[in-house]
Specification:
Rossmann fold; 9 strands; alpha/beta; 12 helices; 3-stranded mixed beta sheet; N-(1-d-carboxylethyl)-l-norvaline Dehydrogenase, domain 2
């Protein structure tokens, strides 16, 4: 194999499509698949080979990159392609999954002789499109020469957390990071909602905290999406944020930790989704503050 591996990208939603384009820009050969082919079809204009099935996508691939809804979906799709997966193929699993799901994925990889990397990414639409994601990775030293060009193409930084993908070390760090991201997102919506309810100009709150220890660019960014009504296209959708929040709560419970903020965030995302905001940016959890929105 050359230093330009052929990559099968399974899942071309917001993140997967951006990652595929950056792989192509780096000169890698990309075979792309999505359950709804229309979402993958635009990648053909960028040079990707769009396939009808995951089996077709992984044929001849050196690296299989999964960016799907969750770990269960990733396992289902890779199982569909199992007949075309040859031993030694690298599987870079970039979906945010649950801890138990990572164990199942790693076990499947072991059964089929795949080199498994637990490699969730930190970042949303804009950094994905710019190739500026942070890759959190755990996996064996042998095989990194194959997967490194992939990580370098989709991200600006790779943080290695261990040499055993089945340990879920990368996913554990990702869940910790996402617990903070989702808490800030939920708080941004609540502070805007409370300000409006109390007849306080939200901008006066941001003026109040400007430059101090309470100020935060991410808080301003999410509140800005709400105030400017720019919740579509999403950087990270309400529905997916809710899924991640539930994974965080479950991870805490399995290790004896009660995560009240994460649980409340999961409930807010669920209410916003039920109100019709599932496909909007996760800042739309703001609407969960109101019963009639």
């Amino acid at each position: 194999m050359t230093d330009k591996p052929t990559v099968a990208v399974l899942g071309t939603g917001i993140m997967g499509a951006a990652m595929a384009r950056n792989l192509l820009k780096s000169g890698l050969t990309v075979r792309a698949w999505n359950r709804t082919r229309a979402k993958a079809e635009p990648l053909a204009a960028d040079g990707a080979q769009v396939t009808d099935t995951p089996t077709e996508a992984v044929e001849g691939a050196d690296v299989v990159l999964t960016m799907l809804y969750d770990g269960d979906t990733a396992l289902q799709v890779v199982r569909e392609a199992a007949g075309a997966l040859r031993p030694g193929v690298v599987w870079a699993q970039t979906t945010t999954a649950g801890l138990d799901q990572i164990a199942e994925l790693a076990a499947f990889a072991g059964e089929h002789g795949l080199v498994f990397y637990d490699s969730p990414v930190l970042g949303t639409r804009q950094p994905a499109e710019a190739g500026q994601l942070t890759v959190l990775a755990a996996g064996p030293e042998q095989g990194r020469e194959t997967v490194t060009p992939v990580f370098d193409a989709i991200g600006s930084r790779t943080v290695w957390t261990g040499d055993d993908g089945s340990s879920a070390a990368a996913t554990r760090l990702k869940l910790v990071a996402n617990s903070w991201v989702l808490a800030v997102t939920a708080a941004a919506g609540e502070v805007v909602a409370l300000a409006q309810a109390l007849d306080v100009d939200p901008h006066s709150f941001f003026d109040l905290i400007a430059g101090g220890p309470l100020d935060m660019a991410y808080l301003r960014a999410k509140a800005g999406l709400i105030l400017d009504g720019k919740l579509t296209p999403p950087s990270f959708a309400v529905d997916t944020a809710g899924k991640d929040a539930r994974l965080i709560v479950a991870a805490g419970e399995s290790h004896g930790v009660r995560l009240d903020v994460a649980r409340a965030a999961a409930e807010r995302f669920a209410r916003a989704a039920a109100q019709g905001h599932a496909d909007e940016d996760m800042a739309a959890a703001y609407f969960a503050s109101f019963d009639d929105k």
